[in-house]
Amino acid sequence: MSELEKRIIEKAATLLAGGEIKRVVGWKKGEFIHDPSPATFETEESLKDFIYNDFCGANLSKYLIDIFKREGKTAVFLKPCDSYSFNQLVKEHRIKRENVYVVGIECHGKLANYKVEEKGITGITSEAHEGENVVFDTLYGKVTASREEVLLDRCLTCKGKKHVVADETVIINDYEDKVSDRFAMVRELEAMTAEERFAFWQGQLSKCIRCNACRNVCPACSCLKCVFDNPQSGIAAKANDDTFEEQLFHVIRAFHVSGRCTDCGECSRVCPQHIPLHLLNRKFIKDIDSLYGEYQAGEEAEGKTPLTSYTESDTEPNNVFTVTEGK
Amino acid sequence: MQEVNNFTPNIVAFCCNWCSYAGADLAGSSRLSYPANVKIIRVPCSCRVNPMFVLKAFQQGADGVILCGCHPGDCHYVTGNYYTRRRMSLLFSFLNYMGIEKERTRVEWVSAAEGAKFSEVMNDFVAKVTALGENKRLQDLRVKEE
Amino acid sequence: MIKINKNDINAFFAAVAEKMPLYLPVKKAGETNYGMYAEGAEVDLTTLKTVKSAKDFFFPQSETMMKFRKEGKNIDIIDVREDKEPFVIFGVRACDYKAFSVLDNVFLQEPVDTFYKARRDAAIICTLACGRPEESCFCKVFGIDAADPQGDVTCFLTENGLMLRANTEKGEALLSLYNNSEKADEKEVKAAQDKTREIIKKLPFSNLDLSRFTEENLKELFAAEEWKELSEACLGCGTCTFVCPTCQCFDIREFKTRQGVIRYRCWDSCMYSDFTQMAAANPRTTQLQRFRQRFMHKLIYYPSQYGGTYSCVGCGRCVNKCPQHLNIVKVIKKLGGKND
User: Fold this and answer.
1) With an 8 Å Cβ cutoff, are B142 and C255 in contact?
2) ipTM greater than 0.90, yes or no?
3) Which of A56, A61, A213 is nearest to C322 (CA)?
4) Which residue among A196, A250, A273, C136 has the highest number of C-beta atoms inside a 10 angstrom radius?
5) Are C13 and C24 in contact (CB under 8 A)?
6) If you count residue pairs, one on A and one on B, with CB atoms under 8 Å apart, how many are there?
7) What gap in Å lies between CA A33 and CA B67, rounded to an integer?
8) Domain residue limits, chain C
9) Do B142 and C259 touch (CB under 8 A)?
10) Which of B131-145, C53-67, C214-228 is predicted with the least confidence, judged by mean pLDDT?
11) Which residues of B touch A318 (CB under 8 A)?
12) What is the pLDDT of residues B8-64, one digit of tens each?
C-alpha cells in the first residue's frame, strides 16, 4: 500500500468515526489492482476494500447526483480534474454543496487499462511512477513503460494539480504542473480539408456501438431522461441503424455539453471502441475560448456559461470560420 | 446555374415569426422571386431552433439549412437572437469540423421591411448549395429510399 | 490437416475471397473488429478478442425486417428476405463459437427466426484456436476448450504458419479452394494446444464455482443482499450487453421514410431504463433490478430453460470493457459458491 493510499484510507476512517459523515465515496478493490469500481463506504470495517492507485481513473462526481440526496452528509474523494466536474454540477444545482464534504486528493496521472494491455503487460501485482516511467511488478517479472504511452489521454494534457473545490486535501507529493497543448490534435484536424476530416470522423464514428457509455459516464450529462431515450422525441434510437444516427448522436451529445464540459475525459476513457470523443468536446471548448474568451467550465460554482450569455458584438455565424480556423 | 448541373437542392429555411417570415411575405407581395425549392418553417424566434432541428432537416433530405431572424438588437423577445448567434456559430463551426461543407449552413438577419434582402439571400444561398451538389455527408439513406 | 506457410496466408484469404465474401478480424481506426476481407485490409489474427463479438453475423445490431410503402390508398408490404449466398467467417474463437449455440437455442426453436436461420445456414465458420489466452478469459468454467474449437474448419496459428483442419463437408470444400498447401505436422499443433491448455489452467478465473446457480436457489439468489453492492457503480450503459456474444435481446422499431415505413429490429439492452417499459408502467425501476436481471438471466433463467447451458461463454469482454469494472466474474465470485 502506498503512503498516499494509507493516508486517504485513514482520512476516510476519521471522517466516518466523526459521526457527522454518514458515508464516503471512493474506489473499491476489484479482482486485480487494475479494476477498481466506484463505491460507497459506510463503516470503518468496509474500508478494508478501499483502494486508491493509478487505475482509479473514474470520476466520482456524477455519483453524487444521487448519493447526496441520502440522509446525512456524504464525503467524497476528488482528484483535481474531478473537482471541476463537481463544481459544475453544483453550479447546475444537481448537487447541494452543503451536503457533501469534499476531500481533494493527489493525482499524478491515471493509467489507461487498454494501453497497458496493448503493451502486453498482464498479471500486474503492483505499480508505481518512477520519474517519466511507470514500473509494473507482474507475475512475469518487472516491466517498465514510459508514462506517455500508458497514461489516459486526458492525463497527457493535465489541467493541473489544483482542486477548484475542497474542504480539505490529502497531498503528499508536490508534482509540478506540466505545460501541454490540449488543442494540438484539434488544430491538426482543423488543418485538414473537409474531405479528410469527414473521412477521419467517419472512420471513428463507424465504430460506435451506441452503448451510451460516453453519455452515461459524463458528469455534464445529467438529464433525468435523455432525448435519445425519449420515444416522444422522434430521434430515440437504440442502435445506429444508419450512419446518420452516429453523427446525430455524437453531434448532439457534444453540443449539449458545450460550455459545461470540463474536459474531464471520461467519455474517451470508457469508450469500448476507443473513439477519441474528447476531440469533439475540445473543438467546442477551443471555439468558445477563441470566440467568447477563455472559459473553463467548473472553475466557478456560480455565474453564466458561454451559451447562456452573449455580447452585442459577438461574431456572426457566417464569419465564424475565419476566427476558429485562423487560430 | 441550376441548369448547369441539373440539380435542384432542397433548402430548409427557419424564419422567425416577427421579422424574417414577414420579410418573406413582403418579398412575395412585392413580386420578388426566390426559388421554389426553399421550404420555409416558421418558428416563434430564431432562438427556438434547436441544433437538433438543423440536423433533422439534413436527415430528412435537406441539402442546405438557413436560419433567418430579426437583426441583433431587434429581437421581438429582446435577446433571443443573441443566443441563436452563439449557438449557431458553434454548431456551424462544429459541423465543419466533422467534415460537413460549411456552405450548407447559414444564418441571415432579415427584418420585416427587407423583402428584397430575403429574396437576394435565398437566391444566393440556393445558388451556392446547387454548386455544391447533393448533401452526401449528413444524409440518412433510409429517408431517400424510394 | 493442411498447413499454409506464414507468407501464404494472405494468398489463401484472397483465394477464398474470390469465391465468396470472407469476414475476418480486421483492424480499423485502431480497433479490431470483424470486417470483410479486401486487398489492403489490415488483417489481425493475433488480437484475441474483437471488440464486438462474432454474433453480429447472425444477429446484427440492426436489420430491416420489412418495409411498407404507401401508394395512393394502398399500402404495400415488402418482404426484404432474400436467399443468402454462402459466406465465410474466419477466426472465430472457441468462446464465440460456443455462443452461436446459445443463440441457436433462442432463434432456431419454434417459431424459427427465419432471418437468423438464413444467415446461419449460409455461413461457413472457420474457428481459430487461442494461442495466448488472457487474464480476463474464463471459458474453461463453461467447459470450452480454447485450444480445440469446432466449426466447419478449425485453424491453428503457430510460428510457422496456419494449420487447418476440416471438420465438415462444407469445410473440406472451402479448403479445396486453395491448392498451395502442404501437409501439416500434427505434433506441432498438439504442442501448441498443450501450451494453451497449460496457460488456461493458470488463469485467475479458470476455476470459478457456479454450483449455487441452480433453479432451486433462484428465489434466494434473487433476494440476495449482495446485488446492492455489486450494482452500485453501474452506469446503466449498454457496453456489457453490446460486446457480449450471447446477449440476444432486441427491440423492434419503425422508421418513417418519405414513401412509407421501415420496420427494423435492433439490439436492446436490459441495462437501459426503458427496456421493460410497457404502456402501463415499467416493472424494473432501479438499476439494481436491471443489473440483477442480466446476471440472473445468464446464470439461472437461461440454463433452466435450455437444459443447463449457461448463457455466458467466459469470453471476458465485459471484464475488459465495463467502464467501472463491474462484470459477471464479480457476480459469480460473490454468489456462485466457493470462490476464494
Assistant:
1) yes
2) yes
3) A213
4) C136
5) yes
6) 117
7) 54
8) 2-202, 215-335
9) no
10) B131-145
11) 92, 106-108
12) 999 999 999 999 999 999 999 999 999 999 999 999 999 999 999 999 999 999 999
Distance from CA of B146 to the nearest CA of C (A): 7
Residue C340's pLDDT is: 64
Q: Which of A213, A239, A274 sits opposite C323 (nearest CB)?
A: A213
Helical ranges in C43-93 per DSSP H: none
Residues of chain A with Cβ-Cβ distance to B100 below 8 Å are 194, 198
Domain boundary assignment for chain A:
3-111+156-170, 113-150, 184-326
Look at residue C164 and tell me whether its pLDDT is greater than 90. Answer: yes
Q: How many CB pairs under 8 A join A and C?
A: 114
Q: What is the distance between the alpha carbons of residues C75 and C73, in angstroms, rounded to a whole number? A: 7
Q: How far apart are CA B112 and CA C204, in angstroms?
A: 74
The per-residue pLDDT for range B62-83, each reduced to its tens digit, is: 999 999 999 999 999 999 999 9
Per-residue pLDDT tens digits for A282-298: 999 999 999 999 999 99
From the number of C-beta atoms within 10 Å of its C-beta (0-12, 13-18, 19+), residue A88 rates as: buried
The DSSP secondary structure of C249-273, one letter per residue, reads: -EEEEEEE-SSEEEEEEEE--TTST
pTM: 0.94
- Residue B144 to residue C258, Cβ atoms within 8 A: yes
The per-residue pLDDT for A140 is 87
Kindly determine whether residue C325 and residue A37, on different chains, have CB atoms separated by under 8 Å. Answer: yes
Enter the C-alpha cell of residue C121: 445456414
Q: Which chain B residues are within 8 Å of C78, Cβ to Cβ?
A: none
* Secondary structure (DSSP) of C195-227: HHHHHHHHSTTTT---TT-SGGGHHHHHT-THH
Q: What cell numbers appear for A225 in the block?
A: 431522461
Give all domains of chain B, ordered by start, each with its CATH number: 8-135 (3.40.50)
Q: How far apart are CA C136 and CA A27, in angstroms?
A: 20
Distance between CA C42 and CA B36 in Å, rounded? Answer: 49
Which residues on chain C are in Cβ contact (under 8 Å) with A206?
29
Contact list in B for residue C258 (CB cut-off 8 A) is: 61, 143-146
Q: Which of A320, A321, A322 to mutate to test the interface with B (most CBs of B within 10 A)?
A: A320
Supply the DSSP string of A112-146, one letter for each residue: -HHHHHHTT--SEEEEEEETTEEEEEETTEEEEEE
Asked if C258 is an interface residue toward chain B (Cβ–Cβ < 8 A), one would say yes
* CB proximity B145 to C under 8 Å: yes
